[in-house]
Amino acid sequence: MAKNFSYELLHVDKKSGARYGVIHTLHGDVYTPMFMPVGTCATVKYISPEELYEMDSQVILANTYHCFLRPGEDVIAHAGGLHKFMNYKKPMLTDSGGFQVFSLAKNRKISEEGVKFKSHLDGSSMFLSPEKSIEIQNKLGADIIMSFDECPPYPCDYEYMKKSIERTLRWAKRGKDAHNNDKQALFGICQGGEYEDLRKYSTTKTVEMDFDGYSIGGTALGESKEVMHKMIEYTVKYLPENKPRYLMGVGTPEDLFEGVKRGVDMFDCVLPTRIARHGAILTHNGKINIRDKKYEYDLSPLDEKCDCITCKNYTKSYLRHLYKCEEGFGKRLLSIHNLHFLLEITSNMRKAIQEDRFEEYEKEFMEQYGQGKPTTLIK
């Protein structure tokens, strides 16, 4: 088990069951539920670490696959690890690279040993195994690192999913055995698709290995919201209360609410910065698109309720102008707003859970946001 890492469950909302807790790490305490901005190539696109501090970002995620391809783990290790390399002073998490290998790499070939693939950058031959993924992450030096798992597609038939789970469990054991940095917490990843019995089997067997935390894998791959909710519930019911729970790759406001009330603590997603670069903006009144001509003369902020530097200083008219001119400053300002928006939601969630009013906050937010209605838990 990792030194300087632990999770404390501080309060459970009496009505919803949503959790408020704290994760202790070498680089500081992290309060949950929380959202992690994604810094794919050791940077959150267009946003500096100093700006992330200002919007109270607690943890950022860097991608093992991309850092492995460039600049390479040895370059980052030479600088003293990711924190020193990119000058980020708060906790960090690295994923295993598995999802990118299965979604981006060309001509991949899965074997018991690992995955052979061609780089999406230049077509060069590459190889990742559970041991190699952990070795890279040990050199990157994040506070939390992830097991290397097979990422089956959705939909996936039962027999393939069963075999995939068995391989992921074997890979999890190999990765855990290879992990040699006790300053880093290692999380296991639970798979199983939409099959309740396979979710139970994957989760119970992963928990038996006693990881520092657990991730719910295999969601947000094109399944319906109802199926995703089932996947979460089928997994969470078998996870220990004294370890953090991480729902990977999920980040819309409605999905954050749905995950938190099902007992999830951690989320990450490229969504806020990716959609910002295409002009899509999250506001308390729902999504807007800054490209719309109706904003050409609009001198109001993106969101009257938001206190980010974008909303406090710039108008929709000016932001639309920057976007239409393809100015990088516009992409920065829009990205800052979207990230601030999600980070503020999770901050408000933490307050609401402590006051046993999470359901009320969800209802109030969703009624104004207008992008969907809260659902009830599956019995």
Can you describe what's shown?
This protein is α/β, with parallel strands linked by helices and 379 residues long. It is 40% helix and 18% strand. The protein is built from 15 helices and 17 strands. The chain has helices at 49-54, 64-69, 73-78, 82-86, 98-103, 130-140, 158-178, 196-208, 225-236, 253-260, 271-276, 309-313, 316-324, 328-354, 358-369; strands spanning 6-12, 19-25, 28-32, 34-36, 38-39, 60-62, 92-94, 106-110, 115-118, 125-128, 144-146, 185-190, 213-216, 245-247, 266-268, 280-283, 286-289. A nine-stranded parallel sheet has the order 4-15-14-13-12-11-7-6-5. α9 (225-236) links the parallel β13 and β14 (245-247). α8 packs parallel to α9 (225-236).
Mind sketching the topology for me?
Layout: E1 6-12, E2 19-25, E3 28-32, E4 34-36, E5 38-39, H1 49-54, E6 60-62, H2 64-69, H3 73-78, H4 82-86, E7 92-94, H5 98-103, E8 106-110, E9 115-118, E10 125-128, H6 130-140, E11 144-146, H7 158-178, E12 185-190, H8 196-208, E13 213-216, H9 225-236, E14 245-247, H10 253-260, E15 266-268, H11 271-276, E16 280-283, E17 286-289, H12 309-313, H13 316-324, H14 328-354, H15 358-369
Helix pairs in contact: 6-7, 7-8, 8-9, 13-14, 14-15
